Amino acid sequence: MSKSPSVVMIGLGYIGLPTAALIAQNKTYVHGVDINPEVVEIINQGNIHIVEPELDVAVAGAVKEGYLIASTTPVEANTYLIVVPTPFKAKNEPDISFVEAATKSVLPLLKENDLFIIESTSPVGTTEKMMHLIYTERPELQDKINIAYCPERVLPGNVMYELVHNDRVIGGIDEKSTEKAVAFYAQFIKGALHKTNARTAEMCKLVENSSRDVQIAFANELSLICDKADVNVWELIDLANKHPRVNILQPGCGVGGHCIAVDPYFIVAEYPMESKIIGKAREINNYKSFWCAEKVQTAKLEFELKHGRKPSIALMGLAFKPNIDDLRESPAKYIVQKVLQNANNEEYYIVEPNIKDHKVFKITGFKEAAQQADIIAFLVAHDEFKTLEIPSNKVVLDFCGVFK
Ligand code: SAJ
Fold it and tell me: How far is the CA of 159 from the centre of ligand 1 (A)?
């Protein structure tokens, strides 16, 4: 790269890399940093290490034109973006050690008027903590640099579009920081940029995903009630949603992915006495996966009692939501593992049309599995499954509304 970078991006994962590519497409020099040397090498060759539509073209172009370069160490710039993971430790407590390490890595490089932004999903107060860390190590910078929090809200699978078009919430540690961060994002984001303070912006991200988790828990709870009450939950929700002020989401096998199933714990861990509904929603959504596995087990035993032989079973779907190949934190995968733990010489067909093979499971085509199996359990509502014609002699467990 011929010019010194304007932006240093710490973390080149599912959000950091697309954001780095977007900024670079805007002809701003970006120095991307990742601790994984393989990732760095792949990106510098103009390739990508994650699956996301349109990201490959964006990264290839940005690298080729020299606006994006990857490295394992940061360099001096004007803007530093922290986009690293915030996993949780035992007891579901958030772990901000990656954010801390990222902040420490740029500490010696910071200078007056720089902009330091955290995008990583973080517990409330993290931006202030990083501010104290910076001011403790570099007291001469007190009130002289701009520090802000700005969470991302993109949906995996549609990241490149949503990065540009979604509204953003931007909260600085003071007004000057907020204004400076807004001016930065305004260069490449078309959605509205909403100003607030850092704590509110942090809480906003956690609340968005908790809100969805609570709403899905309501739908999942309804599915358990309806199973006992002998009411078709899909028809019920459809009818209830005809009310002008009711909008119930869809039940499924539980909630997966790296966001909705995780972020609510960041609130519960800090405010356990107050976050009753949020905590309970997590429990309900986790329980739903366990319940589905139990249902498969019961169907197996019923089949054996009725037919005097062991059934063959198709488990349809492994991904964490429909029409993607992402198996991270997937309730479907959990159910498959749980069912296989109880296997007792039955024949199993594991199906996931969005992946070719898997290191643990032997993958069978969805048509073949549906044809061969006595019991067909739908764990993910992939589009392919909706086209299946299932003979009436099969036992169908439709946990996610494939045939609703
Ligand atoms: N799900 C249901 N029923 C529904 C909707 C979803 O069971 O009616 C399940 C899905 O099957 C999946 C899980 O919920 O297992 C999460 O899927 P999702 O599509 O709702 O969300 P994610 O995890 O892919 O992305 C979310 C988004 N947040 C919200 O919609 C509030 C996205 O905008 C965030 O940027 C992302 O989390 C994130 O990175 O935090």
Answer: 13
* Stated pTM of the model: 0.94
> Residue 106's closest CA among 39, 177, 8?
8
Residue nearest to atom 4 of ligand 1 (CA): 250
Provide the CATH number for the domain formed by 252-398 in this structure. Answer: 3.40.50.720
Residues with CB under 6 A from ligand 1: 152-156, 208-209, 212, 216, 249-250, 252, 255-257, 259-260, 320-321
CATH architecture of 7-206: 3-Layer(aba) Sandwich (3.40)
Q: Classify residue 123 as exposed, middle or buried by CB count within 10 Å of its CB (0-12, 13-18, 19+).
A: buried
Domain boundaries, the chain: 7-206, 252-398
Relative to the CA of 252, which ligand 1 atom is closest? Answer: 7
SS3 content of the chain, % helix, strand, coil (to 5): 45, 15, 40
Is 259 assigned a catalytic role? yes
Q: Are 350 and 317 in contact (CB under 8 A)?
A: no
List the pLDDT tens digit at each of the 404 positions of the chain.
446 779 999 999 999 999 999 999 999 999 999 999 999 999 999 999 988 899 999 999 999 999 999 999 999 999 999 999 998 887 788 999 999 999 999 999 999 999 999 999 999 999 999 999 999 999 999 999 999 999 999 998 899 999 999 999 999 999 999 999 999 999 999 999 999 999 999 999 999 999 999 999 999 999 999 999 999 999 999 999 999 999 999 999 999 998 999 999 999 999 999 999 999 999 999 999 999 999 999 999 999 999 999 999 999 999 999 998 889 899 999 999 999 999 999 999 999 999 999 999 999 999 999 999 999 999 999 999 999 999 999 999 999 999 98
**7-206 and 252-398 agree in CATH topology:** yes
Any idea how long the chain is?
404
Q: How far apart, in Å, are the Cα atoms of 128 and each of 125, 139, 144, 179, 266?
A: 5, 15, 15, 17, 16
